[in-house]
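quick one, two chains, predict together pls
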Amino acid sequence: MSTSTYGGFFEASDLTDAEVDEIEARFVPVADDLRRLGTLAIGSEVGDDEVSRAREHLAAAADLLGRKCRETPSGVQHNATGRSWQWGNAVIGRRNPVAPPMTVERHADGSTSAALFLGNGYEGPPTMVHGGVSALLLDHLMGVTASSMKKLTMTGTLQLRYTRPLPLGDVWLAGRIVSDTGRKVTVTAEIGGADGAAVEAEGLFIVPSWSVAPDGDR
Amino acid sequence: MSTSTYGGFFEASDLTDAEVDEIEARFVPVADDLRRLGTLAIGSEVGDDEVSRAREHLAAAADLLGRKCRETPSGVQHNATGRSWQWGNAVIGRRNPVAPPMTVERHADGSTSAALFLGNGYEGPPTMVHGGVSALLLDHLMGVTASSMKKLTMTGTLQLRYTRPLPLGDVWLAGRIVSDTGRKVTVTAEIGGADGAAVEAEGLFIVPSWSVAPDGDR
């Protein structure tokens, strides 16, 4: 039913843009509901009776959503208009309650940025963003910075320098390309909060050999 | 009502071990329910009617759990017996559906290890673990490796080398200390799957000045 490109990286979808919009309108609110429920699962102080009744509702919701479900990972889909989506991605997946989700903005000069809210589920040190969550978000933003519709890259190396704790709440990220030799792209990026940058990163992103077209123009 | 130690890092709790066990028995299954629901939110293909009814159940569950809820992050709690817990931690938080959750084993020689299942919500490249998720888990395991009851450390620098893609599913991690100069601990670690290591990491973990007791023995 579907073909794929880039060595199978993208899965070709028969969905029209309108159908993708419709599906997102249906399921993104479910992920948002689950994000809120995740915060309650951490902090709730109700008793056994309320929890027991809540779990009955969660089981009923799972029964309804599970009546028809793709069990394989969502992958990276794209359709005939060139639209692409990654509903289950751990960082940007809009249908994935594990993801904050982050949205990466691309600017005319090739730089990137993002702004998002990190709530209680992203904690490491008390009241602070987990250092590994900063690494997770930076890796994703830097990968987007290094890649394009014409160039698919994978993380080769990543160096992170933690300069100060980052409080939970509103955070920002910024990335830019510092060199691009064709198959190897070096990117720098930062994540920070109201007090300035908290983690500085440099990464080498590599175009995998399997994504290079036989005519060599990718 | 509570005091704190280590410059506020730990929050002293009045809960007994039995009370902590009781609370975990009540809420960890809620987080597990939400982990399953997260996978369904990504992959479900049911229609508007089922989703609408599922969302009513999710709202009812949120109402029940939210009747009494701590809104501040869960932090790192410890009680009089020396037990400590981090219910909301992004990696190990047992009440946090964002967390897989990982459990780190400490071995007699100071090394550490972990084994866990990463499902569809941790995806980056299609069917593969997000490179940033590997960074997240490694950062946490390495921080545990560097720290102890006598020494609290924070990530200083982290270098990651990605050697092969890591499929979603069962993964393992292993870490060890390679040098410890008192205030600075160097740790190496790997994450991999059935095919061997996929990401190699080296990190420098630092004892923050605010955690050093005035008598200098920390």
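Residues 1-5 of chain A have pLDDT under 50 and may be disordered.
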